[in-house]
Amino acid sequence: MKKIKVGIIGMGYIGESHIEAVRRIGCCELYAVADVNAELAKKKADYYGVQKCYSSVEELLNDPEIDAVHNCTPNFLHLSINKKIIESGKHLLSEKPLCMNYEEAAELVELKKKYPDSVAAVNFNYRLNPMVQETKNRITDGAIGDVRVITGSYQQDWLLYDTDYSWRLEPEVAGNSCAIADIGSHWMDAIQHVTGHTITEVMADVKTVIPVRKKPKQQTETFTSNVPTEYDEVEVKNEEYGAVLFHTDKGATGVYHVSEVAAGHGCYFNFEINGSEATLKWNQEENDRLWMGIRDGDNRLIIRDPNSISSGARPYTALAMGHPEGWNDAFKGNIYAFYKYIEDGCKGEPVFSTLEEAAYIVKLTEAVIESSREKKWISL
Ligand SMILES: NC(=O)c1ccc[n+]([C@@H]2O[C@H](COP(=O)([O-])OP(=O)(O)OC[C@H]3O[C@@H](n4cnc5c(N)ncnc54)[C@H](O)[C@@H]3O)[C@@H](O)[C@H]2O)c1
Asked: Following DSSP, what letter does each residue of 231-268 receive, concatenated?
């Protein structure tokens, strides 16, 4: 069977993870990369031995060999570049958040309806961690009873000091949210995916923890902790912290918080789901383990094992038990799910996030920011 030829736009921090993931999947082939920074695009193409290298979106989209395109550019470019990809008739895998605001996201959802022959997805990669899929399958099979209470957090520390800076803090590049859009979006997506519940009401408190930061005069790489020697002091408008109370359409209640100023945390994404019969608890930093809490019996630690994992989670894990898999493997899992869906003729419910689901996450993000500003519950 002919391999699906892939082009990746944006060779920054996450673009490289996309390259590595695509390279590990049999039914697709990494064919081209592009970046507006031509030197960077060439460097990455040479390093990874990529056949074609472009310095504009248009050049890459005009290449008739390419079947699918990943958009790994900053948020403010998601609407315009995703639109061009959809209109080219090629498959689209966009980075999250889908757009800067819900109006833009709804425009993409509408546009996509005119191009039913291609597939569009958004890269909410935590869904495809095998133990997140395990959580989903166990909840669907009734292992914890009715979902009642959902709690958790996503904590990082890459914005801890006033010398840390990112375009994610700038509303004109990132949208009107930093932490909620950047990492809260992942948390809300994963929770809705595993529980089958939809968050319908939010009450939030978000905070700009460091109101003035030192913005480097020279652009630096994303997530590096180099202290700039030359900088401008700039006022920060987006939040690095947020706490959100929420209700779901099926009667569950919950609370989560996100922080990008939590010293010592690199990627502490965690959740605990209390059902009427048992609890499931998971933490990305120890991602091979899923804890099951049982009141009238022994609590259990379920260790990822391809031999015993549920059939639904099995395609997304490869290494034998005791051989730790990690963030990159789960990331590959999401991209594998996208290409497998295309290869299999787009049958059934996709396990990856659709444009509609990702547009709803943008709506939720807006509601969280509005709730904090207005100091009241917001219903969706
Ligand atoms: N799924 C995840 O876990 C995850 C993790 C990190 C980032 N992201 C998302 O990925 C996106 C990119 O984030 P990043 O951290 O890689 O940013 P980055 O700033 O490191 O990289 C962005 C790249 O896009 C390039 N670019 C800018 N304008 C362009 C254009 N017009 N055409 C082609 N290339 C262009 C830049 O030169 C840069 O190399 C964001 O939307 C972010 O939210 C997702």
From this structure: EEEEE--S-SEEEEEEEETTS-EEEEEEES--TT-SSE
Q: In the chain, helix, strand, coil percent, each to 5?
A: 35, 25, 40
Query: What domains are there in the chain, each with its CATH number?
Result: 4-125 (3.40.50.720), 127-323+353-374 (3.30.360.10)
Under the banding of pLDDT at 50, 70 and 90, the label for residue 1 is confident
Q: Measured between alpha carbons, how far is 363 from 371 in angstroms, rounded to an integer?
A: 12
Nearest one of 152, 131, 244, 150 to 197, comparing CA atoms: 150
Ligand 1 pocket check for 72: Cβ under 6 Å: yes
Q: Is 125 close to ligand 1, i.e. is its CB under 6 Å away?
A: yes
Among candidates 98, 124, 44, 154, which has minimal Cα distance to 355?
Answer: 98
- Residue among 14, 92, 169 to mutate when testing ligand 1 (max atoms within 8 A of CB): 14
What's the pLDDT score for residue 225? Answer: 75
How far is 135 from 126, CA to CA, in rounded Å? Answer: 12
Please tell me if the CB atom of residue 12 comes closer than 6 angstroms to any atom of ligand 1.
yes
Instruction: Name which of 97, 75, 94, 302 is nearest 184 in CA terms.
Output: 97
Rounded CA gap, 91 and 361, in Å?
21
Could you tell me the pTM of the whole model?
A: 0.97
Nearest one of 188, 182, 129, 167 to 326, comparing CA atoms? 129
Rounded to an integer, what is the distance from CA 355 to the centroid of its chain? 13
Closest CA to 199 of 6, 345, 365, 324: 365
pLDDT in tens, 85-144: 999 999 999 999 999 999 999 999 999 999 999 999 999 999 999 999 999 999 999 999
Q: Answer yes or no: is the C-beta of 30 below 6 A from any ligand 1 atom.
A: no
Q: Which two tokens stand for residue 297?
A: 């019996």
Q: Is 306 in the pocket of ligand 1 (CB under 6 A)?
A: no
